[in-house]
Design a protein that fits this description.
alpha/beta; 6-stranded parallel β-sheet; about 25% helix; globular
Length: about 325
């Protein structure tokens, strides 16, 4: 299979800060010891890609977008082969981590996702909007052939990440509250097989009205509100709304990346005893578990599919008020 790999490939690249995606012919990268050359099947687009284009993560231009690749193994480096997890032709997906140092505390004791010196696909290293993607075998998981507690959890933002989070939370047995201010993603999420127990439109529902709906899900619950909330959008108003829905001693998990920062009052943090934590992404073992859960529970991803030549339209649609689901470039 390696003999059929071409010398060049097409890639959608941002050439300068604030610029559009430009389709270019660039060399197919050579694999390093721990690397896998993936024949890209699909690559996701998310808000982080827009931040990269705006220079929020630096000025590493030109750069190929997307840190969300899936495809098949085309070629492997020596250490990747020794790992024994993959072979040419296997269906795989990869995390954004590339070339972790292997010697820092996080690499040795915690997760390569937090390595102080790693490269990140589509952020400071070429990503997956290309015919081939270079990924790290230590941050890669297998995909099955079949894939084409009593706590109240709020998912704030029902877009690409949010509608997936709802399904995983339901599969895990949580009471789930979905929150968004747009009718299109709310209706999409309501139609899921693993739908939230209740959906709340933040644009038309006051905090008090929302709390009444949440309390009705578990009338015997001693503390009013959500036990935890996962905020996966970057809309400033949604952060305070989420905090207002949290019960005392609740947990606020920040996934969204608001450029202008997040603001809470001291009363929320101190007198409600709220715990605030951030989440980058999971490690390889967690990703493999996630894949298995998706297959077991038939978790679905609502996608809008594009070709590489459609990048301009993808960006127009990504900014549309009624957007819903995940934008994916297919190869």
């Amino acid at each position: 299979m390696t003999s059929s790999i071409p010398a060049t490939m097409r890639a959608a690249q941002i050439l300068e800060k604030g610029g559009p995606y430009v389709i270019r012919d660039i060399p197919v990268p050579e694999v390093g010891p721990w690397q896998i050359l993936m024949k890209t099947a699909c690559a996701g687009h998310c808000h982080t890609d827009m931040m990269v284009a705006d220079g929020e993560f630096g000025d590493d231009f030109p750069i190929t977008g997307s840190h969300e690749p899936a495809g098949t193994v085309a070629k492997m480096g020596a250490e990747a082969i020794k790992l024994g997890k993959f072979k040419v032709g296997d269906r795989i997906a990869a995390l954004a981590t590339l070339n972790p140092c292997g010697v820092c505390w996080d690499c040795k004791e915690n997760s390569v996702a937090y390595c102080i010196g790693f490269q990140a696909l589509g952020i400071n290293s070429n990503g997956a909007f290309a015919d081939y993607t270079l990924v790290d075998a230590r941050a890669t998981v297998s995909l099955p052939e079949s894939m084409a507690w009593d706590q109240t959890l709020g998912i704030i933002g029902l877009g690409a990440l949010g509608h997936l989070a709802v399904q995983y939370a339901k599969a895990a047995g949580y009471i789930v509250v979905g929150v968004d201010a747009r009718s299109e993603p709310i209706e999409m999420t309501k139609a899921l097989k693993l739908a939230p127990d209740v959906c709340i439109n933040a644009a038309t529902t006051s905090v008090e009205e929302a709390l009444v709906q949440i309390s009705a899900l578990d009338p015997k619950k001693p503390l009013r509100g959500l036990d935890a909330c996962l905020v996966v959008n970057d809309v400033a108003a949604s952060f305070q709304y989420a905090v207002d829905l949290l019960a005392r001693h609740g947990t606020f998990v920040l996934v969204g990346q608001p450029v202008d920062g997040v603001t809470f009052t001291f009363k929320d943090l101190i007198f409600k005893d709220i715990r605030v934590i951030g989440s980058l992404y999971g490690d390889c073992a967690q990703a493999q578990t996630t894949v298995a859960l998706a297959a077991k529970h038939n978790i679905v991803v609502h996608t809008s599919k594009y070709k590489l030549d459609d990048m301009a339209q993808l960006l127009i649609d990504a900014h549309a008020p009624g957007r819903k689901g995940k934008s994916v470039v297919m190869f």
